[in-house]
């Protein structure tokens, strides 16, 4: 079997897709997850896709003793891809302490045992660190702005923790991937996004409206300074995003890192409005969407999309799937979970 890569949060949306792509690239993924926001059934789904059931350990990475003991018992882990974190923007405003505790304790517990040892570490960051960029497309050199939420703040501070750790210990090789908007599902429709409760994000709300779980979808504002008045985002297919993590691990293994802390934008480099998403969903699936225009959502930024030239140049990675692929795969997944509830 290939090099052992720890995937924290590996039964989650992006984590599960990354486990599949790691295995496809010849790695041996090992999952740690506390199942606080995912289902253990995803393990069986992954096995149906790759024909291999990844090693799975259920515990909370906020438990320093358990985390240290696990890492000590697994000295053959050469890389860590860290997804496990709370990530709901709105919820973070209501529960800031839970977000800071969970997202920082888990990160620090993962890093501490590697003082003086080699480790390749990929961190799940977010374009949310840019806030509303002054210049678009936004590059990695753009200033990080005061976060609009505790969730966004945990990403900004985590990047600082990683950068400062890398500065004092060259044994850490660290890459932070700043995701834009991850959407879609695996082509098998066996894994995808499993929102718990009322979806906060656009695409799950679109597919749940199309399947009849929601009566309608509200477009949060059409009075922005954009071509059709609705917000612009850089939507990226979750499979493309997963492949970027494999590229980051490979870059560190091959010693190509210019610095032992690097940041990359992971998006398509294209901006799409909410109304364009709705039209793309309808045209690519043939499903009609019942939508209304409503007021703006507090905290939304008007437009953001990434300059991804550094990722293409340095990671040798580029998004290959388009918005129609994203819509069709999200719809196939929604139909799958309707027939096979988790
Ligand atoms: C996208 C657009 C909404 C729902 C957040 C986090 C980001 C990442 C992804 C974790 C916006 C509009 C949405 C709806 C709508 N989180 N919308 N009606 O806010 O860009 O990003 O989620 O990884 O870090 O910041 O994503 O999907 O919530 O919204 O009109 O019912 O869709 O206003 O313009 P967002 P989103």
Automatic annotation (TrEMBL):
Coiled coil: none annotated. Residues 6-328 form the NAD(P)-binding domain. Gene3D superfamilies: NAD(P)-binding Rossmann-like Domain, UDP-galactose 4-epimerase, domain 1. InterPro entries: NAD(P)-bd_dom (IPR016040), NAD(P)-bd_dom_sf (IPR036291), UDP_G4E (IPR005886). Keywords: Carbohydrate metabolism, Isomerase, NAD. Belongs to the NAD(P)-dependent epimerase/dehydratase family. This is UDP-glucose 4-epimerase. It comes from Pelobium manganitolerans.
């Amino acid at each position: 079997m290939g090099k052992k890569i720890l995937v924290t949060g590996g039964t989650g949306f992006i984590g599960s897709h990354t486990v599949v792509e790691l295995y496809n690239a010849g790695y041996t993924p090992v999952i740690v997850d506390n199942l606080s926001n995912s289902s253990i059934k995803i393990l069986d789904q992954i096995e149906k896709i790759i024909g291999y059931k990844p090693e799975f350990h259920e515990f909370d990475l906020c438990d320093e003793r358990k985390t240290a003991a696990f890492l000590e018992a697994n000295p053959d882990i050469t890389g860590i891809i860290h997804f496990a974190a709370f990530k709901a923007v709105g919820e973070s405003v209501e529960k800031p302490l839970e977000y800071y505790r969970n997202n920082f304790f888990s990160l620090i517990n993962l890093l501490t045992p590697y003082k003086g040892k080699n480790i390749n570490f990929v961190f799940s960051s977010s374009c949310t660190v840019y806030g509303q960029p002054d210049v678009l497309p936004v590059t990695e050199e753009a200033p990080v702005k005061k976060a609009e939420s505790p969730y966004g703040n945990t990403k900004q501070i985590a990047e600082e923790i990683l950068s400062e750790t890398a500065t004092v210990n060259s044994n850490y090789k660290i890459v932070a991937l700043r995701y834009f908007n991850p959407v879609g599902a695996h082509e098998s429709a066996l894994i995808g996004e499993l929102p718990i409760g009322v979806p906060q994000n656009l695409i799950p709300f679109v597919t749940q409206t199309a399947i009849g779980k929601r009566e309608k979808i509200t477009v949060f504002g059409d009075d922005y300074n954009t071509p059709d008045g609705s917000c612009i985002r850089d939507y990226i297919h979750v499979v493309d995003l997963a492949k970027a993590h494999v590229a980051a691990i490979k870059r560190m293994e091959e010693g190509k890192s210019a610095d032992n802390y690097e940041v990359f934008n992971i998006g398509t480099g294209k901006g799409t409005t909410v109304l364009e998403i709705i039209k793309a969903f309808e045209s690519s699936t043939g499903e009609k969407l019942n939508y209304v225009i409503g007021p703006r959502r507090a905290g939304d930024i008007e437009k953001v999309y990434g300059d991804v030239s550094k990722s293409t140049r340095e990671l040798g990675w580029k998004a290959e799937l388009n918005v129609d692929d994203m819509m069709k795969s999200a719809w196939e997944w929604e139909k799958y979970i309707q027939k096979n509830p988790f």
